[in-house]
Design goal:
It is a single chain. This protein has about 220 residues and is an alpha+beta fold. The strands form four sheets. A seven-stranded antiparallel sheet has the order 10-1-7-4-15-14-11. Strands 2, 3, 5 and 6 form a four-stranded mixed sheet that branches. It is built from five helices and 15 strands.
Amino acid sequence: MAYGIRLHVWGERACFTRPEMKAERVSYDVITPSAARGILEAIHWKPALRWVIDRIYVLHEIRFDTVRRNEVESKISASNIKSAMKGAKTMAHQIITEERQQRATTLLRGPAYIIEAHFELTSQAGDTDTPEKHYNMFLRRARQGQCFHRPYLGCREFAAYFAHLDPECEIPASYYKDAEEVDLGWMLWDMDYTRDMEPAFFRPIMRQGVIEVPDLLKEGG
C-alpha cells in the first residue's frame, strides 16, 4: 500500500442508516465503507482516482441513543428545478409546515474511527495525474483541515471532525482491543456505479476493534 492513508474521524453523533428499515431511521453499529469513502472524497477527490477502504478501526464503545427528529417527507424533483431554470412555471418550492414529519432515529453516540485506505487511478486519469501528486494533495488538505464540503457521519447534520494520522503515529487503543471477534451482521458495502447503482453488501467481522474491508468492486470484476 505505497500510497495508503490513515484518517482519524470522530463526531458527537452518527447515523449510518440501515436500508431495510422503512419508516424509522436505525443506524448500523459502525461506519459503513461507503460513508468512509464519502469522508475521504470530501477532502480530496477527482474523476482520476477511486478511493478503496482497506480497514476500519473502531475506537469508542458502540453506544446508541434514540431521538425524534423532524424531517421533510419529500423533496423537489430535479426535473422541476431544471424546468424552473429554463423559465417554465413549475412547482419549485416546498411548504415545510405541510410536509414535516416526526420520526424516531436510533443513532450512534460519540463514534470515533481510524480509516485506512488507498486510492487507484481510473481510466479518466490524464498524463499529469500521478499517484504522488494526488497523495501529496490529500496529505496537504487533510493536515490543514481543508475539504470541499463538510464531511459527515451518515447524515449531514452529524458533522465529522478529522485529522490525518502520520504513519509513524501509534493508532489509539480501541475499546474492543480485547474482543476477539464480533459479528456485525450484513452491512451495505457501497453502491456499484458500474452496474446502475446496484447495492453491494458484505458481512464485517470486528477483531480486536479492527474491521477488514474487502474491495468487492475488484473482486466482482
